[in-house]
Amino acid sequence: MSAPRDPERIFDEQVATRYRLYSGLFLGLPYDLLQRVGRLLPVFAEHCRKSLQQKLSPTEIVRRFFADNPLLGDVPPNDALFLFLQMVERQIVLFDALEESSFAPMHDPAGPGSVSQVLDEILRDNRSAELAEILDQTATRIVLTAHPTQFYPDTVQYIIQDLRAALHRNDPAEVERLLLQLGKTRFSNPERPSPIDEARSVLRPLEEVFYDVLPKTVARMLVVAHGREHMPRQLPRWPNLQIGFWPGGDRDGNPFVTAQVTLEVARLLKERVIGRHYAAATALSRRLTFASVHARMLTLLDRLRLTWLTAADPQRSASTTAAGAPPLGSAQELQGELLELRQIIMRDHQRLFLDELDDLILKVHLFGFHFASIDLRQSSDVFMQTLQEIVAQVGHALPLPSCERDLVAQAHRSQDLHFGLLEGLLEKEWPPLPDLAEHLSPLAHDTLAVLRLVPAIQASNGELALHRVVISHTRGPEDVLVVLLLARLAGMAPADGRLDIVPLFESIDDLERSHHIMARLFAAPIYRTVLDRRRQRQIVMVGFSDGTKDGGYLAANWSILRAKRRLTTLGRTQGIRMVFFDGRGGPPARGGGNTHRFYRSRDANVEQWETQLTIQGQTISSNFGTSDMAIFHVEQLFTANLENLLSPVHAEDPPAEFLPLLAELSGCSLSAYRELRDDPSLLDFLNRASPLPLFDHLTFASRPVSRGAGTSLDLDHLRAIPFVATWSVLKLQIPGFYGLGTALEQVSRSGRAPELQRLYQQSLFFRTLLDNAAMSLVKSRFDITAHWENDRELGPLWIKIRDEASRVEANILRISRQPWLLANDPAIRASIRLREEIVFPLLVIVHDAFTRYNEHCQRGDANTPAAVCARQMAIKGIAAVINATRNAA
Questions:
Q1: CB 744 within 8 A of CB 813
Q2: What does the mean pLDDT of the chain come to?
């Protein structure tokens, strides 16, 4: 029996010690001024540490450093600071690569949550038949988004990939060469990427990791469920593991995502996946060389090649190949050909190379001709505006009385429309719409145009290619009927069943109303027609990011759990299976943290047949960047479903006796958070003392920072990502903890501290909530901004945030009975601490830079050379800080 793993010791040996050895290579690299300036980085870091103890501002710290170091007299301070910044930036990359290359030693591939462990238990208990039944119904969908929490351009990503491999081989000579390459490579995009650029970037993990990893995970499960011989003919109709794709489909607040972009991304996905199928089939053809198989395999390969070429160039003639074989019409046709080959091999050739053939069969099953499912996402306001414009322009040609046209035209939001009116409109026979390009606004025309693309993309790539419309800011059942009506006008009747309509509930109020909204929809015969064609499944998305921005960390998480429970009860009483799609980000403030624990904490009151979640930017590379990491995280997500269904441990989590306590905690936390959010000095703080004014200058994504068109700062329209990222750069992670301390302290002072301790012990939901808040606290530090304490206008707000952090820490330690935060996750704590040590001098540089830039803006001289230099330094530093603040979970 092997000794138990010690993650903290392994981290120290594999990451911390090796980092200190390899980081010394930086000083031997031929950077400009490195010998004179670079060696002063540790001196600068120590100067910053001592100065912050005196509560000096970053700007004063930087000024004094250059005044006290005459050796830098002929080196402009900005040049030295840029060099410091570049060195820290590359040290972060080195640290990331070391952590990723050490992933396998630090994680047991057969440990808790692994497929191996689950299958061992199934075989031990002789439950294969039960597993087979569950696999026909359960699924996990990992949705890759273009949300910009990863700032490295592709050139740097490829270097990181090679650096990771060199570190894994422990090849110092190659590591040194790659570090030199990093020193000569830009770490930022010269201009914003287009949505197509973003799609190509997110495609990389699809091609390099997921294409090979997902079939291995599914195969192991299906073999145990059905047996090796029957497995390929027992594939569920819908894949157990699916990849979703938001680049090219998520147009909420992004005017650069158009119908043409969506069409091009769908074509790109088809081209890439068929290219992967063709490469796999080519390798397979070198093995299937025996009689009655080889000729068929070559013909199939020829057809697949033509299909690939046609996908790459849709204008290409796709009639026949030189041998007269037509291209493949669908993934189902390719699958059928492969299954026939398998039958011949089983019958005549002693199952030779059957594993290789089954691997390709599973790849076609999982990825089809679509590779990943594009989601269309748009705001409910835009859908309503589109309907109003259509009615205003061609209402006279539609079967609408003038009174109904007036009601549609005068409604400010969809909820202003009578639900019954929309039902009636959907039941009417609608004539084909005329060409409205000259009559509609560009946004409305594009909204209708992209819906018109759905049948064509499904015909080309398969139904899974594009079958969901996500409605941001869903506030009433009318929002869903408006989208159905637009789909009807685009040529898709509700009874066609081409689309899943996915309401997205984000704000605290919308989450509280969600079950009422869905109940009204389920009572509508026209909507039940849609559900009849969609397997009686209703997908509901919940937004952790915007929920946290609206109501704070605890209230958002509690509101989401309450909404899921109520919706589950509603669905079960109506005979509808609810599927919850979680809009999660990387940090705990946006639903991140330890995601695996979150999904294992689901109880019987929350429908758990399927897991769907978004994976964003930095988390894509940090959790799924290599095969080892992807296998681990995919298995952890997939087996959470199976374990909850096969062996439900949490019949009710949190237990019913604690529900009033959690409701009280949530209400108190919500009040405390909203008091901060609505404090007038908060906007002043973000304008004067934060990097938020600079986010519009970042070139990391195509999406604008705010949904609104105004120039003034507005928290309602500000996106959750820049909101959370701003606090991350400030090292005040308030979205991940604020309000929690006040709530816990209020309950404790009423004599119920033992009750909180019992809740922590008995509820994985509550324990995960506090553990993830602890992660936010460990990533926070108040010395960087302590100079604001005595500011007459902003000081009270800063003190309020600091005191709340102290309350959270004290109460978590008391409730969890840990000696320090994250004592139960020592490797994660060690990782965060070392990251903070690396990034520390960079924080001072960034805070100095954005403070100077903000002061220039307030004086009205934002375009002077000094302001431009400060802006450039701040932008570069912001990206580096956020890249360094990735999750260690």
A1: no
A2: 88
